[in-house]
Amino acid sequence: MSIKPAPRTVEPLVEAFATVLRRRRLAQDLSQEALARRADVSMRFVSLLELGRHMPTINTMQKLAKGLGVPLSDLVREAEEEPAKE
């Protein structure tokens, strides 16, 4: 008898932020490590954020925006406009 893990639920806005973060990072040709250095967070944390496995705090989102050289409001707006995945 195998035990199946409970399905992982991801808040739509967390998933949308993850998509926007990854898209913005790749558009600047940055590695996760480079963004992590710029934002003063760990590379592992950037990875988990991009996978939608962590919900970033406002402070973390601000650090990431600064690391990307964009206003936080741009990231939030893009996340809000990101289509929901079914």
Structure description:
It is a single chain. The protein contains 5 helices and no strands. By secondary structure, it is mainly alpha-helical. The chain has one domain (12-81): Orthogonal Bundle (434 Repressor (Amino-terminal Domain)).
Beta content comes to under 5%
Class inferred from helices and paired strands = mainly alpha
Largest sheet: none
What's the CATH architecture? Orthogonal Bundle
The domain count comes to 1
CATH class reads Mainly Alpha
* The CATH fourth-level homologous superfamily: lambda repressor-like DNA-binding domains
Q: How many strand elements?
A: 0
Measured distance between first and last alpha carbons: 30 Å
Order of H and E elements: HHHHH
Assembly classification: single chain
Integer-rounded radius of gyration = 14 Å
- Say what the CATH topology is: 434 Repressor (Amino-terminal Domain)
Query: What is the overall pLDDT average?
Result: 89
- Fraction in helix: 55-70%
Number of helices: 5
Keywords: DNA-binding
Pfam family, one: HTH_3
GO cellular component, one term: cytosol
Organism: Paracoccus lutimaris
Could you give a short description of this structure?
This protein has helices spanning 12-27, 32-39, 43-50, 58-68, 72-81. By secondary structure, the chain is an all-alpha fold.
